[in-house]
Amino acid sequence: MTDFDGIYRAEYGRCVATLTRLLGDISLAEEAVQDAFATAVEKWDKAPPNPGGWIVTTARNRAIDRLRRESTREARHAQALLLQTPDEPRDVGPVRDDQLRMIFTCCHPALSPPARAALTLRLLGGLEVDEIARAYLVPETTVSQRIVRAKKKIRDAGIPYRVPGDGELPQRLDSVLTVLYLVFNEGYTSTSGELLRTDLCLEAIRLARALAELMPGEPEVTGLLALLLLTEARRPARVGPSGELVVLAEQDRSLWNRELIAEGHELVRRCLRLGRPGPYQVQAAINAVHTDGEATDWTQVLALYDQLWRLAPSPVVALNRAVAVAEVHGPAAALAGIEELDLPGYHHLPATRANLLSRLGRTAEAIAAYDEAIALATNDTERAFLRAKRAVLP
């Protein structure tokens, strides 16, 4: 039986990016790809050897037909004729990568940061509006409006579909790095369904590699790539035989990908030599410590979290730092450090509190915190993990 959901998630972003290059219109590309997937559901008895290629070809033909039907001006006819030419369209940027171009288009400074992230997760990650809404803890209507307005802004402002020149790269870089990080995180801990979406993790890494080739001297790009590689290296041990979540302290380190770890460590050393620390580089260094040897040096991790806090203070950084504080100074010190944090809807905060409270023997409070975390968690695997932790409390 054809796994249409799996194919859709794996191929949607690539197909939309390719059709956008061919059509020059994101909305038209999306509609054509969606029509092609609907046609596939009707026609496929089994998936073809190259499902993405089939979708792109079908979507392209549908778009040509539509342009012919709707054309009332000579320019529309010319566009339809252009689509029929077998030659590759001329390159419009420094690299030939449709999805990298799509990220830079979605991360144009004319768009608001929330719109950039929502549009990229929709177009590149293939996430539905409800999934993006859960990831950002906002109503679905808000996400839908952001996406519609962003696409309209791109069209009306004539934002080009290309990787910008060297002079424009720095002002777009922070947004691009953020979006790649979000795409990877959605793959590593999906907002719904199964815990992992390997396709998103691998796509984020591929695009981070392409960006590192484009900007080899930018330490934060190198840092992000290192961070993704070192996190991905642990993925094989993150889920147990029955699909259960396995936390870092309990993972079988023999299952970790040593090749990715070696590459990530080398990239971290390269960042150190550049001497321009940034948040992604520090996070990569934290993961390098986690993957160095047979046990984590928590004192070193805490020192790195202190540096991360100075560079990019946030409630999430404070929460993650508390995990290291608990290992170095004990759960009471860690609990004191997070009691005033305000992270509405973020289930990791009550989950961390529950763990610390249970270690302190404050069972009733721990149970209440676990209940809060379970109610907030949207991923089935994470909910099952939290329920199991709650169940063993006396």
Structural commentary:
- This is RNA polymerase sigma-70 factor, ECF subfamily.
- Pfam families: DUF6596, Sigma70_r2, Sigma70_r4_2.
- It comes from Amycolatopsis keratiniphila.
- The protein has 19 helices and no strands.
- The chain is mainly alpha-helical.
- Among the domains are: 5-84; 322-394, Serine Threonine Protein Phosphatase 5, Tetratricopeptide repeat (Alpha Horseshoe).
- Helix 1 (4-23) packs across helix 3 (51-70), helix 10 runs antiparallel to helix 11 and helix 12 crosses helix 13 (279-290).
- The radius of gyration is 23 Å and the shape is globular.
- Residues 86-95 have low confidence and may be disordered.
Task: Give the secondary structure arrangement, pairings included.
Elements: H1 4-23, H2 26-43, H3 51-70, H4 74-84, H5 98-106, H6 113-123, H7 129-136, H8 140-156, H9 169-188, H10 198-214, H11 219-232, H12 258-274, H13 279-290, H14 298-311, H15 315-329, H16 331-338, H17 348-359, H18 363-376, H19 380-391
Helix pairs in contact: 1-2, 1-3, 1-5, 2-3, 3-4, 6-8, 6-9, 7-8, 9-10, 9-11, 10-11, 11-12, 11-13, 12-13, 13-14, 14-15, 15-16, 16-17, 17-18, 18-19
